[in-house]
Amino acid sequence: PRCQNKVCFLISLHYIDSKCCPFLMASGGEGPSSSPQRHTNRLAKERSPYLLQHAHNPVDWYPWGQEAFDKAKNEDKPIFLSVGYSTCHWCHVMERESFEDEEIGKILSDNFVCIKLDREERPDVDKVYMTFVQATSGGGGWPMSVWLTPELRPFIGGTYFPPRDHARRPGLKTVLTRIMEQWQNNRPALESSGERILEALKKGTAVAANPGESPPLAPDVANRCFQQLAHSYEEEYGGFRDAPKFPTPVNLMFLMSYWSVNRSTSEGVEALQMALHTLRMMALGGIHDHVAQGFHRYSTDSSWHVPHFEKMLYDQAQLAVAYITASQVSGEQLFADVAKDILLYVTRDLSDKSGGFYSAEDADSVPASGGPEKREGAFCVWTATEVRELLPDVVEGATGSATQADIFMHHYGVKVQGNVAPEQDPHGELQGQNVLIVRYSVELTAAHFGISVEKVNELLASARGKMAEVRKSRPRPHLDTKMLGSWNGLMLSAYARVGAVLGDKALLERAAQAGNFLKEHLWDAEQQTILRSCYRGDEMEVQQISPPISGFLDDYAFIICGLLDLYEATLQTEWLQWAEELQLRQDELFLDDQGGGYFSSDPSDNTVLLQLKEDQDGAEPSGNSVSASNLLRLSHYTGRQEWLQRSQQLLAAFTDRLTRVPIALPEMVRTLMAQHYTLKQIVICGQRDAPDTASLLATINSLFLPHKVLMLTDGDADSFLCQRLPVLSSMSQQDGVATAYVCQDFTCSLPVTDPQELRRLLLDGTTETQAE
């Protein structure tokens, strides 16, 4: 459902995929936005970029909250809940067509209490009603349109509606009229039907372990997960299913972890090949922005060529980790370069001066040629004429007096008529345009033009630099400057992990800056609560709304994971201490003591009708999957055995899902494997900034070791770690040199001081051991 191009007309229960149905686009006319602002509603006082986009609709919008609920009860009116996010293409379409329409605005305002919700601010509310829409219509996506009773119980819902009837599909005006009639004449049936569905959903979405139940067997679950992924794998271009094709970093990380414990089997080799081929083809494809870095949301075709052009922070974060992991596994420089390339984009375009990260860049923008109409991809695409005018110089020594443009166009598949097939462009927005995609290796391009590989690399880099300058002069897409706890946690992990592998101090400093941002702006020390979001103000200052939105499970889980990664990258214990504090607070707020695992939101919030435990690793990993790993890691850092047990109980709660469809939870399967194969504790005895310590750390960070925790002890018996793990006090440097101990199942290797010996020990475990 992350794909907002799913169009569902609930009245006819007809569900289609709009990307595959060009005729449908006629109903989504891309006309100019309405001119001067004749209306202002109460959303003008909000900070969410999505809500502010609707502040001048002729609709009496309310934000989600008590004022709207009271109005619905006092006036006994149904609620119209409209949910989306600021970079959602079809949300923009529905706003232009329906919410800027005076007639539809009046019908909505006179007969309904209209609530506009940013799904990224309130994922808990979004999830409840999306579960309802998916259950009743067979599909989902954004914008989501749901009608509720004054008690917030849904009774009908869908996604995008055109403004008026189109062919045999009812428009929003018709739907509103029918609902008003039913509310007047058939209200008890509407309410009881919604109530029945809600009760069924409460039962159907329950996730709990039976008392004393153990997690399922890790090798069996991992093998099944691999088989399910292999079945859906697309061999030519990598990825899973044909089109649309999503990056799915959770799948790729699972495949590399699966390989790490099955290196000698054909399945293990195949898993690694699937992951690396997918990452390679994505890096070459149009989904990768070759001029300004970063990755677009997904590809509309099977070859990763024509993307949906929005860029999401959570994609950049997870893909940076996937690419740096691929570089550890394969030693290929390409993967490390792409990881750096992603973080270059995030540092430049998605970073706030406070240290936080913005949420997203839109797909649509005004073309450089002008006009009031925004077009998808306008910021990113090129005509052949633009390329020729920008790169006219003849390249010395090239076959046939080729210009820089000739070489660039050959390499990146630029064509005079444009390189986007009509079926990939149902709006006709990309006619004559080119989405850059690497068509040949540098070696083949060099051979084709009779010049050296070095010369080609130099020419292509120079061309991309010139094109990046041109792009700076184009009208930019909308930037969603909301800063979210969960996504900032994911990004913190990315900077920490990429920085550690590359030994890049600037990246590690940026990671620490992100950690400080989270503590300063998204942590309420008085209430001991993580906050969901903060916002960029008009003066570029960080702003908060009143009251702020309290954090959800994902916010705690992703930030804790980021802090653990930041500790392993910097070995500064302040981050480990805060991770421990946050885990204790997460347990207080979200833990299901009886059934195991965590609820997605605070169970005490009575405006959220379903207490859900997210059971899918999708565009983002689920909070429970990440929590299972956090608990396991923290149990090794703190000696808290109850956290190990809690992690096992969580995995047991998801036994049914893990056993039947592990492909839905690849991130959780990774933790199940980590528990089965047990974590290695790698203890470095040394001074944090000393060169001999750095040599050992560089060896560790060069390897993909999914089942490890890394810690440093400098001989201070009063340190955070020594207080929690007294055994560390018995470990010391050998002959005054930084020394590594590798422990597993409470048995440690003999001390190692040589980086190469440590590498051998970590890869194959060959050394004598001594009991702790």
UniProtKB/TrEMBL annotation:
InterPro entries: 6-hairpin_glycosidase_sf, 6hp_glycosidase-like_sf, Ssp411, Ssp411-like_TRX, Thioredoxin-like_sf. CDD domains: SSP411 (cd02955). Pfam families: Thioredox_DsbH (PF03190). Residues 40-202 form the Spermatogenesis-associated protein 20-like TRX domain. Gene3D superfamilies: 1.50.10.10, Glutaredoxin. One of its GO terms (biological process) is carbohydrate metabolic process. It comes from the Eukaryota. This is Spermatogenesis associated 20. It comes from Dicentrarchus labrax (European seabass). The gene is spata20.
